[in-house]
Amino acid sequence: MTQNDPRVKDKAQKFVLTLSCVERAGIVQAVTTFLFERGFNIDEHQQFDDGLRETLHLRTAFSGSPEYTPERLQEEFNAIADRFEMKFSFHDQTKERILVMVSKFGHCLNDLIFRWRGGSLGGDIVLVVSNHETHRAMADAAGLPFVYLPVTPETKADAEQRLLDLVDEHNIDLVVLARYMQVLSDDLCRSLEGRAINIHHSFLPGFKGARPYHQAYDRGVKLVGATAHYVTAELDEGPIIEQEVIRVDHSYGPTTLSTVGQDAEALALSRAVRWHCEHRVLLDQTSTVVFR
Ligand SMILES: Nc1nc2c(c(=O)[nH]1)N[C@@H](CN(C=O)c1ccc(C(=O)N[C@@H](CCC(=O)O)C(=O)O)cc1)CN2
């Protein structure tokens, strides 16, 4: 049975390497030599040489030798990483564990659950948390635990600590704000940095805040959209992962804009979650590099 025999390929352990560093000669050669010397096959490779920021971003998916783990690869790659001052990570096929937060609008939660059950989300939904009871039935129907966490100015700090406890208890890798309409505190945002994605129901940077469709209606826009971004303390300012738009016209009132916008929200969010779970999103200062 040769290396290229599909049965070998299926049994081969799959990994992803992502890295960012100052652009200079020899980086790709160092990476490919490291993988070749260990008998790995490169299945997918993408890189972006950001000339403006003089930074190279790279994502390599590779497979082979099942005796390796991300930790062992990290250990053996350290010398190269130090030489090039790289920020890097190795990932295996372990699926990201996802906690979804929702308030009253359930279309994004519904879409995420549908894609998860169909195996196309790229991660595993483990838990649903909400500040309303509205979508308990949807979670129950999907066999998902549902935690009701009401938030008032008086209970916000305790509610946020409870959320962090749930993240630890369930070994959560990613928190998804699927139309969760409470502003997270600075401390919570710091605790969830790089592992919380929000869907904002406008084409940012336009119409920030809680009522973007009313703002869009008042402005008379001809396109409405949605933006999936990492959550930061600055409301609706986090690094953007994906955006989607839909054409509208003068006949759409705020309610109709909200209704048609739901499709854009669900699409942008599910793509952003899948790309994050497939380690296709690299943070680059205040923006992202997405190897789709
Ligand atoms: N720290 C952050 N928290 C949250 C973000 C974020 O970017 N950073 N995104 C929001 C979602 N969102 C827009 O996408 C949003 C949610 C809520 C509000 C808001 O003003 N909420 C009011 C209460 C509204 C209500 O109870 O219905 C408030 O919290 O006082 C603005 C934007 C999720 N959190």
Question: How would you describe this structure to a colleague?
Answer:
With 292 residues, this protein is of the alpha/beta class. It has two domains: 79 residues, Alpha-Beta Plaits, CATH 3.30.70; 194 residues, Rossmann fold. It is 35% helix and 29% strand. The protein has nine helices and 13 strands. The strands form three sheets. A seven-stranded mixed β-sheet has the order 7-6-5-8-9-10-11. Helix 4 runs parallel beside helix 9 and helix 8 crosses helix 9. The two termini are 33 Å apart. Ligand LMY7XDAE binds next to strand 9.
Radius of gyration: 21 Å
Helix content: 25-40%
In sequence order, what are the helices and strands, one letter per element? HEHEEHEEHEHEHEHEHEEHEE
Number of DSSP strands?
13
Q: What fraction of the residues are assigned to beta strands by DSSP? A: 25-35%
Q: Give the name of the CATH architecture of the largest domain.
A: 3-Layer(aba) Sandwich
Distance between the termini: 33 Å
Q: What does the largest sheet look like?
A: 7 strands, mixed
The backbone outline, from C-alpha atoms, is globular
Q: How are the strands of the biggest sheet laid out side by side?
A: 7-6-5-8-9-10-11
Coarse structural class: alpha/beta
Task: Assign the CATH topology of the largest domain.
Answer: Rossmann fold
Oligomer: single chain
Mean pLDDT: 95
Number of domains: 2
Poorly predicted ranges: none
CATH top level label of the largest domain: Alpha Beta
Number of helices: 9
Keywords: Hydrolase, One-carbon metabolism, Purine biosynthesis
InterPro entries: ACT-like_dom_sf, Formyl-FH4-Hydrolase_C, Formyl_transf_N, Formyl_transf_N_sf, PurU, PurU_ACT
Catalytic activity: (6R)-10-formyltetrahydrofolate + H2O = (6S)-5,6,7,8-tetrahydrofolate + formate + H(+)
Pathway: Purine metabolism; IMP biosynthesis via de novo pathway; formate from 10-formyl-5,6,7,8-tetrahydrofolate: step 1/1
